[in-house]
């Protein structure tokens, strides 16, 4: 569950705010697209969720916890509730596919046994079992993004956040990635996808939030891309 | 969230060493040039420090040895009265500077002298209590040899009122005390300067490590690694570099020290009968200090680097 209550975020006093009085509610298990032109405030939205930055005004809630009120020490534990997928993948080049995914479990202190059990399952889910021992540079973009998704879901987050997950991929691969995200959502995870990809948004018929210059312009439950290009 | 957090924290600390040690070793390898520079700087610093430390330990040992043998003798006039003797004795015993006072009568002094000159005893046999040439005296041991001067002044205040004169190895004590002070001060100055240099070099090594791993650190943050987990490998790396330097420096010093001791063969060219500290004891102190120091320098260097370059 994600809730924004009158959230405003300004980076610079001399510039207009990146987010302006945004209020929204995303329920547990929802699949939501977040669209908007470059500079509309989409990444700011995600950074607020991850508590990389703090709201200037208003509050952000995740699973009923006020994120703005977390201490620095608690932030890592907030992030363990969320999986994150980036446009530029962010895999470790010197680790194999298996190791990249296992790494996310090591970091939060899972046992070797748990890791050996769960990593193959996650890789299977994204259809990459056969690439387990390959290194990122041996994979296509789509395959790398699948590894990132496997890593993002390996610790069973309740929310999966994707910032332009298909931004660097061709249309066909993009659909494959989106259908993996759909499958993850079907298993109960809340999924938020930031995207520019109008076609995908229109086809999926999911809820669409549209940001324009930091203002939440459209919140369309039936899935139409909220602004004209 | 809080509850879950605590449970996870606990388990992450439990399994941390495995990953941390592996990543740290990789990092030292990857940064081999800077790592080597760090270790070398610690070695250089510790060898210089070690020389000073050995010097200090030995000077202290010699000083202690000499100090324990130092006495101040207050010789009494041949015609001192019992009242004078008592007044002097009381004054001495009241003083905080004095550890103990023993009275040595003229007879005892003669007897001691006779015994010490056993071979010539017949020559001295002509002396008895009637014509004893030896003066009576107070033998004083002071708590701190630096106070010898003051005790002498105190004793001399009774000059002509029972006290004839006072003797102690004045110049020698002064020289020893000031040399001891000098080596102590010098060691501390050297310690501080070299520590700063070593910390700075380790700081730079860890800075490079942090820089080389910044992508990884970013990913760790997103996956929810705690700050302690992120910092641990860097602190471990710095500490390990410091410890490596300490061990190598110790071996070099140990070999050299025993070699030099073998060359001089215990001949110290010292003007007194005093012995050096036992080499094994010196080495024991040295390795203890080196490990502590190397680890500390390494940890401090990395903590500074992390604070500055790892925004966690
Ligand atoms: N760290 C920052 N410092 C200053 N301004 C920023 C920063 N990050 C983003 N902005 C500004 O905030 C606005 C929204 O940016 P962002 O959230 O990245 O948009 P989007 O992801 O939709 O392209 C833009 O005008 C951008 O220039
Ligand atoms: Mg963006």
SS content category of chain B: alpha+beta
Helix proportion range of chain A: 25-40%
| Uncertain runs of chain A | none
Strand order of the largest sheet of chain B: 2-3-1-4
What is the count of β-strands of chain A?
10
Task: Indicate the radius of gyration of chain A in whole angstroms.
Answer: 17 Å
Order of helices and strands of chain B: HHEHEHHEHEHHHH
Count all strands of chain B and give the number. 4
Distance between the termini of chain B: 20 Å
Tally the helices of chain A: what do you get?
7
> What is the strand content of chain B?
5-15%
Blueprint (SSEs and pairs):
The complex is a heterodimer of chains A (229) and B (312).
Chain A: E1 2-9, E2 19-26, E3 31-35, H1 42-49, E4 57-62, E5 65-66, H2 75-79, E6 82-86, H3 97-107, H4 112-125, H5 141-153, E7 159-163, H6 171-186, E8 190-194, H7 198-204, E9 207-212, E10 215-220
Chain B: H1 2-30, H2 32-69, E1 72-76, H3 82-94, E2 98-104, H4 106-116, H5 121-124, E3 137-142, H6 148-156, E4 163-167, H7 170-212, H8 214-223, H9 227-264, H10 279-309
Antiparallel strand pairs in B: 1-3, 1-4, 2-3
Helix pairs in contact in B: 1-9, 2-7, 2-9, 2-10, 7-9, 7-10, 9-10
The complex binds adenosine-5'-diphosphate and magnesium ion (MG).
Adenosine-5'-diphosphate (ADP) binds at residues 11-12, 18, 36, 38-44 of chain A.
Structure, explained:
Chain A: Pfam families: ABC_tran. Chain A: Keywords: ATP-binding, Cell cycle, Cell division, Cell membrane, Membrane, Nucleotide-binding. Chain A: Residues 2-229 form the ABC transporter domain. Chain A: GO terms for molecular function: ATP binding. Chain A: It is a peripheral membrane protein. The complex is a heterodimer of chains A (229) and B (312). With 229 residues, chain A is α/β, with parallel strands linked by helices. Chain A is built from seven helices and ten strands. In chain A, the strands form two sheets. In chain A, strands 6-7-8-3-9-10 form a six-stranded mixed sheet, with helices on both faces. In chain A, strands 2-1-4-5 form a four-stranded antiparallel sheet, covered by helices on one side. Chain A is globular. The mean pLDDT of chain A is 92. Chain B is of the alpha+beta class. Chain B has a four-stranded antiparallel sheet. The longest helix of chain B has 43 residues, at 170-212. Chain B is elongated, with a radius of gyration of 31 Å. Classes of the chains: A alpha/beta (229), B alpha+beta (312). The A-B interface holds A 50, 63, 65, 72-74, 76-81, 84, 90, 92, 103-104, 106-112, 151, 155 and B 1-2, 4-5, 8-16, 18-19, 215-216, 218-227, 229. Magnesium ion binds next to helix 1 of chain A.
